[in-house]
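Hi all, long-time lurker, first post. I run a small reading group and we've been trying to get comfortable going from sequence to structure in the token notation. Rather than ask abstract questions, I figured I'd post a concrete chain and ask someone more experienced to write out its structure so we can walk through it together at our next meeting. Sequence below, copied exactly:
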Amino acid sequence: MGGRPGEPDLCPKESAHGPSSRPRRRRNMTDRHGVLLSSDIVGGAGDGAAAPVVEARPPHDVRCAADLLRLLVSLAALAATVLLAVATRDFARRAQQGLLAAATALPPDLRDGLVGTLQAIAMLAPLAALVVLVVRRRFDAVSRVLPAAALGAAVGWALTRVALAESRPESWPAVLVGRGGLVHAGWPSGVYLAACASAVVAAGPWLTRPWRRALWALTVGCAALGVLAASLVPLDAFGALVVGGTAGSAVLLLAGGPADRPPAKAVADALVACGIPLAALHELPADRQLPGEGLLYGAETTEGARLTVRALAAEDRGRDLFHRLARRTLLRHPADPGQQTPLGAAEHELLMLVFAARTGARVAEPVIAYPVTGGGAVVVTVGQDARPLSALPAEELTDTQLGEVWAAVARIQEHRLAHRALRPEHILVEADGRPRLTAFARAQLNVSPETLGSDIAELLATTAVRVGPVRATACALAGLGPQRLASALPYLQPLALIGPARREVAHYDQARAREAAAGVRRRTLRPGGRPNLMHDLAAEVRTACDAPAAKPARLARFTWQSVLGLAGAFLVLHLVLPQLANAPAAVHALRDANWWWLLAVVPVTFVSQAFSTCLQLGTIPGRLPFRATYQVQFASSFLNRITPGNVGGMALNLRFLQKTGIETGAATASVGLQSLAGAVSNIVVATVFFAAAGQRHGGVHLELPAGSYTLPVIAVVLAAGGLLGLTPPGRRFLREKVWPFLRAAGSTLTGIAADPAKLALGVVGMLGLPLVQVVGLALSLHALGGDLPFVQLGAAYMAARLLANAAPVPGGLGALEAGLIAGLTALGVPAGPATSAVLVYRLLTFWLNVPLGALALGFVQRRGYV
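-- Answer (accepted) --
Happy to help. Here is the structure in token form:
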């Protein structure tokens, strides 16, 4: 490298226009890892140099994203285990019986030997692990292991005694009679295995990788030996392991674990080992640290040079785990790098810095990347008296500074180098006001236009949050030029901002929405009128570059069309096909039907959406145009046909209200109030019909299973409240998320209650919606020759509706039809007319909504309402 004839100098040099244009004599050398070192910094330490002064905060417990992911996966596996045991009890019993028969076919001596081996391991391994932790004075690990084992045993007992009891083969306990080991052949049980698995998970952060693998091999081996020796049934063994992952991860998330990063002393030793004459090392303040990007230190050499040291560890890769998962799930081409060790990540960042400097961009000047004892690594750059761009007040930001930032971006993009984290916190402004790009850890070479466009969109959006879209666009135009800036138009969309930038833009839009609503008690809201920074930026870029509107790039892996296509396929396979079995009866009934009365049923679909619109208008704090809200209600009715519990319709209504400018808390309160009003109206109307119908007919009985769920719901609510109130993360979540939401919801309810017109509109909608459905059923029954008093018909409909609401199928499909037919026949309607009337009624009020709602959904999407 340094001094070899014909070999270029890859270390970046200061520009002639930099703070120091004086020629600097530089020579490069290579360390044993092949990383370039700068000789004016390296090589000044002598054998008699004093020990460097190290200043760092004491280590503290951390909560890892990997523990949260393990908890979620374990909970999903636990739910699948319970569902398999409960919903397919006979199948699970037969399958386990077959495995049990294969196990009992082994010779008795072999089975007893396996049981004895299993019991010896189960006795000695936990005791030995606990003794090792105590001898090594890992009392913080012991304080996690014991609660995790207790929690795992409690959850394992509930799982094996309640959820899995009915799925065990009937012959299973009998195969243990007369068999022996060190103790009874049924030990270790699933409860004990769950406790051991929980302890292994909880002790994991304090163990090295070989120890973790060994303990997990023992735990899984014990479960497999138990199944092989027929001392455990397979579902119990699998459930115990899943419970271990759940309980152990929960304890680590609540109590925290040790930080998986090298201590400051190890970082200082690594700097001295690579030849840097280190005099002092101090940890930078918390406002300079960025989660998931290593720990930043400031360093000084014995010659007075200042350095910036970024210490990387394995946990830094895990902190953005959910960010990477979100990108891989939502984006068609996530362009994320593969798994890297800390040293590999450090060398990658150094290489990207060198390449970026060769393009002519002002970037942090690299020095060295070097491993740290314990599996970490450091990236050293020349220190600067600088502050992040994000720390500067908006009034101190000049157009010249922003223009220089964009000029640097233009230079690296000319060479197809993507930064992939272009945000103000990754731009340093030196004392003379000149900016530098830093944090090239995620940078990539030879990238696609999508990645380059996303870089521009991210920096444009995050600077617009600080200086506004007009000024941000003007500065970008000055630095990039019109052609390159216009090329980013297809990527000015939220999907290009997955991560911190997206949250910044969302908070900015929410603040603008609150400012627009401040001091205004009554206003007419405009559909699609919510402040939208990305939309404003796209308009400014088109105007500044005189460019035509560009179609948004296809970044999403999943679209509305693909999701609805999958949902529709599920609907056809599981819901529609069984209904076709009754199609011949409906067709036969239509031959003798009174078509004029059937035509009178068709407007019921449109009138019911009008009542639903009234209910929506009566539960929002502002005024919306009736026509747009009516169209959104039709679209939400389509989503309710393919999602259980009206989840799709509620999500669409929430999005609609947010797009009109209503704050998220107020919009959520309105949607929740609308659902609550619908449930209350069903109960009120049902009560009136039941009271009016009297006791002349006893064939309609209402049995709601709500009581059986009361205690579990109360227990879950109390447990969640305890976790939120007793843990620091829970209290922070309450303070930062829950209380602002509750305040917004409370102000929404107060505003609605103080407006008589809103109350009247809401009452008309909530009572008219079920009544018009009863009218539709009455018209259908009359058209097919049936006859029943309206009060009794209403009682039958409301009883069937209340029962169908508990069914986990969209719109109560199947459950409502069965309830209506049973209710009508119990009240004296012949089976033929009752069945035909119900099928025709559902055809004209349920299935007619599907094509109409699909058209409405496409329309409101094109108009930007949702």
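A couple of things your group might point at:
The chain has 30 helices and 13 strands.
Residues 664-693 form the longest helix (30 residues).
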